[in-house]
Amino acid sequence: MIDLYPNATIIYMWLIFMAAFLILHYGIFRPTLKLLHLRRTHTHGIKTQAELLEKESEQLLQACEKKIDEARQIGIQEREQRRMAGEKIQSETLQKGRQAMTAKIEEARSLIEQQSREALLQIRKYSQTISQEIATKILGRSL
Question: Is 140 left (phi over 0), alpha (psi -120 to 50) or beta?
């Protein structure tokens, strides 16, 4: 029959249990828990460091974007200034060209007026001469 009452083997079993418990506790569980704890603290430290680096990189990215925007604005302003300077030069050149053309037109107009006056005077002289010749031929005598 099975004896369920404690006997002398219980002491040996208790000693084996305690030896196994102590070996497992100090040999496996404590080092494992210590490794897990070190891993957790190390992971937390790296995670914190990664978050700091991410924030720093975002700040640097924002600073770079700000500098790019500033450079873009400066470029737009310079382009606008150069465009306006070009338009000013263009209008000045056109103005000078118009003035030169106006001067040439006025010169040509005055030359044409002078030539037309001279031609009119020549025509008047010629017409007087012709009229005298016609009158001489019609009358048959000289005037």
Answer: left
Question: For residues 115, 119, 122 and 123, what is the CA-based torsion angle, rounded to 10 degrees?
Answer: -170
Q: Name the H helices within 1-29.
A: 9-24
* Amino acid at position 135, single letter: A
Contact predicate 136/143, CB 8 Å: yes
- Contacts for 143 with CB less than 8 Å, ≥ 6 apart: 132, 135, 136
24-28 CB contacts, 8 Å cutoff, 24+ apart: none
* Mean pLDDT of the residues in the chain: 91
Are 100 and 94 in contact by the 8 Å Cβ rule? The answer is: no
Please classify residue 54 by burial: count the beta carbons closer than 10 Å to its beta carbon, then call 0-12 exposed, 13-18 middle and 19+ buried: exposed
- Residue 122 is encoded by which pair of tokens? 């020549």
pLDDT digits (tens, 9 = 90+) for 27-77: 999 999 999 999 999 999 999 999 999 999 999 999 999 999 999 999 999
Q: pTM for this structure? A: 0.48
